[in-house]
């Protein structure tokens, strides 16, 4: 995934300053290369290079760039290695036009050949460059930039958003075709961005842009047109109440630790974000489905694994959790109008999930979704969505959004169980009351009671380049998520798996002192005693998260037992991800790895 930010103004002459201030908030979207182009005295000035945003911004003094309009781009490399020449923005052949994109242009290579044969100078191996040549190709023919952009989009295949500008006017044009794009209307300036936080330093007056639309930015006004026919579209701005401070660290050393602590408030704001009648409509659709699929990626997928166990336990519903990139190959032919696909994506932009939605809609399946970023592509494509209300999650590794998702799935399964008459209204009310009133303080207590032990484990765990995290039933997804956190921020191969499966092969890895982390729900201790025994007798060092239990005490030393406060079979799995997040966080910092921006990965992958 990448991030673009573009602004045109009639009150700034050193546009580089605001471009840097706003684009810096997109760092989590890509930190392989960075570039800014501005127009000053009718010439395009372009500075770009490989590296993280702050490094490149300082080295190239991006904040000193002159002019009254400009485009910034932060890149997570897909097509074309991270390098200066592949960095964005890109110029057209004659350096009259400049553009930058987010997403991927699937027919990049054939277009590169075609345009080169037509005489274009395509300088890089980055698919984003093809956007500016696609526009240039028609602009050279017609001289009408708006029409040239519309025609240029006709050449491009894939999901993308791009911004383009000419050196001779005060406009900037932006296109949304499958990747995220938001617009902002300030005083004497307008802007677009891949994500909302980066618009807030300019304005809180926001307009959501939908796929198939283009935006024409002028300093005093903003116009939306449909790309297909050029027709103007009226859409009122809304005032965003998002707290920009949320996007800052607030005194924590890293966004990841801040967001681990924000799980207390996020599980509270979740219940103010979801509203009737949408909750009942969501549950009704779920209950009536012939088949229910969860579709998600990364941490969101792990949340759906826990969600599947909740639906089984609380509502006797079989929900199949499927990884986004896998769904169409596994269920694409059988999915139909009686099926429900619950898409879960904090960004609402993950391409592997969006692809499923496009296919499932052709099969008339119902698309429900759980999304954090409002106005994101998934919210537009779904029949019905529930917002997570987690606030901005900046750190690449998901924490608070994962926990909010699991909490929401617990709630929805309870409502579905009540709707089906499996749970009495009284039982359902009591379970939901636990979620709404007890969970936030239990999360707070869990963080307090497990942080020291989590931190103390770092020196021992840092000696291993691989180990396992095992879960059972409701904590299966918790084990997968804990393992992913460790992979993501510690560069250690932590493998999450079902504890009963460990003896069928992986047990061979165990030798004296080998670390095995167990995450155990309160009622499952008896079920996994033999799983504990089989590794302990072979010398493994067992680390466990779970409620205090004499059986566990027999196998787990006190320093290795990250005890979560007593709650219930259904709340405990939500709490148990927290010590695993803390183990990962403190192990990363012990290894001098920045947990917010781990190498090679990105917060949202809008490429398949
Ligand atoms: C990955 C991120 O790229 O996408 C993960 O590194 C995230 O942290 C996954 O869980 C899915 O993202 P989303 O936005 O669809 O929940």
What would you note in describing this structure?
With 608 residues, the chain is an alpha/beta fold. The protein has 3 domains: 3-246, Glutamine Phosphoribosylpyrophosphate, subunit 1, domain 1 (4-Layer Sandwich), CATH 3.60.20.10; 250-423, Rossmann fold; 450-595, Rossmann fold, CATH 3.40.50.10490. Helix content is 37%, strand content 23%. It has 19 helices and 25 strands. The strands form 4 sheets. Strands 3-2-4-1-10-9-11-15 form an 8-stranded antiparallel beta sheet, with helices on one face. A 7-stranded antiparallel beta sheet has the order 5-6-7-8-12-13-14, covered by helices on one side. The chain has a 5-stranded parallel beta sheet with strand order 17-16-18-19-20, with helices on both faces. The radius of gyration is 25 Å and the shape is globular. The structure holds 6-O-phosphono-beta-D-glucopyranose. Residues 297-300, 345-347, 350, 353, 396-398, 601-605 line the site of 6-O-phosphono-beta-D-glucopyranose.
Question: Summarize this, please?
Answer:
The chain is of the alpha/beta class and 608 residues long. The protein binds 6-O-phosphono-beta-D-glucopyranose.
């Amino acid at each position: 995934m990448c991030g673009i930010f573009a602004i045109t103004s009639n009150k700034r002459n050193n546009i580089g300053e605001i471009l840097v201030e706003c684009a810096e908030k997109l760092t989590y979207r890509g930190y392989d290369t960075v570039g800014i182009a501005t127009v000053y005295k009718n010439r395009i000035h372009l500075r770009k290079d490989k590296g993280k945003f702050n490094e490149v911004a300082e080295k190239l003094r991006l904040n000193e760039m002159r002019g009254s309009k400009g485009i910034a781009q932060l890149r997570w490399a897909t097509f074309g290695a991270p390098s200066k020449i592949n960095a964005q923005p890109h110029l057209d052949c004659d350096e009259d036009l400049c553009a930058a994109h987010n997403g991927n242009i699937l027919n990049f290579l054939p277009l590169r050949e075609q345009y080169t044969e037509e005489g274009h100078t395509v300088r890089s191996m980055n698919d984003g460059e093809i956007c500016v040549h696609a526009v240039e190709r028609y602009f050279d023919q017609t001289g009408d930039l708006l029409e040239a952009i519309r025609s240029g989009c006709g050449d491009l295949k894939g999901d993308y958003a791009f911004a383009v500008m000419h050196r001779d006017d005060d406009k900037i044009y932006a296109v949304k075709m499958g990747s995220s794009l938001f617009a902002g209307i300030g005083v004497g300036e307008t802007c677009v961005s891949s994500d909302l936080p980066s618009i807030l330093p300019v304005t809180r007056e926001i307009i959501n842009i939908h796929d198939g639309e283009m935006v024409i930015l002028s300093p005093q006004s903003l116009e939306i047109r449909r790309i297909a026919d050029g027709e103007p579209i009226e859409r009122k701005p809304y005032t965003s109440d998002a707290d920009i401070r949320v996007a800052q660290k607030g005194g924590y050393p890293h966004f990841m630790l801040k967001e681990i602590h924000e799980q207390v408030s996020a599980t509270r704001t979740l219940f103010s974000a979801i509203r009737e009648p949408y909750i009942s409509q969501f549950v009704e659709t779920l209950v009536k489905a012939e088949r229910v699929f969860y579709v998600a990626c990364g941490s969101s997928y792990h949340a759906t694994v826990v969600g599947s166990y909740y639906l089984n336990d609380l509502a006797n519903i079989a929900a199949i959790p499927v990884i986004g990139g896998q769904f169409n190959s596994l269920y694409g032919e059988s999915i139909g109008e009686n099926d429900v696909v619950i898409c879960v994506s904090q960004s609402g932009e993950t391409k592997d999930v969006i692809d499923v939605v496009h296919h499932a809609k052709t099969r008339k399946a119902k698309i429900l979704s759980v999304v954090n970023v409002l106005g994101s592509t998934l919210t537009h494509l779904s029949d019905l969505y529930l917002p997570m209300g987690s606030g901005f999650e900046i750190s690449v590794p998901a924490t608070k959004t994962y926990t909010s998702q699991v909490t929401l799935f617990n709630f929805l399964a309870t409502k579905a169980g009540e709707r089906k008459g499996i749970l009495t209204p009284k039982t359902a009310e009591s379970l939901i009351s636990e979620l709404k009133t007890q969970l936030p303080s239990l999360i707070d207590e869990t963080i307090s009671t497990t942080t020291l032990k989590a931190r103390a484990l770092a020196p021992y765990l840092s000696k291993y380049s691989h180990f396992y995290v095992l879960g059972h039933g409701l904590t299966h997804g918790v084990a997968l998520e804990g393992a992913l956190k460790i992979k993501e921020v510690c560069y250690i191969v932590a493998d999450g798996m079902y504890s009963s499966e460990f003896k069928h092969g992986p047990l061979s890895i165990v030798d004296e002192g080998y670390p095995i982390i167990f995450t155990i729900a309160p009622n499952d201790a008896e079920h996994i005693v033999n799983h504990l025994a089989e590794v302990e007798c072979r010398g493994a060092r067992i680390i466990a998260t779970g409620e205090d239990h004499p059986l566990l005490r027999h196998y787990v030393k006190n320093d290795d037992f990250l005890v979560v406060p007593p709650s219930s079979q259904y709340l405990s799995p939500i709490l148990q991800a927290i010590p695993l997040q803390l183990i990962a966080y403190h192990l990363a910092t012990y290894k001098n790895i920045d947990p917010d921006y781990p190498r090679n990965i990105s917060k949202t992958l809008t490429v398949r």
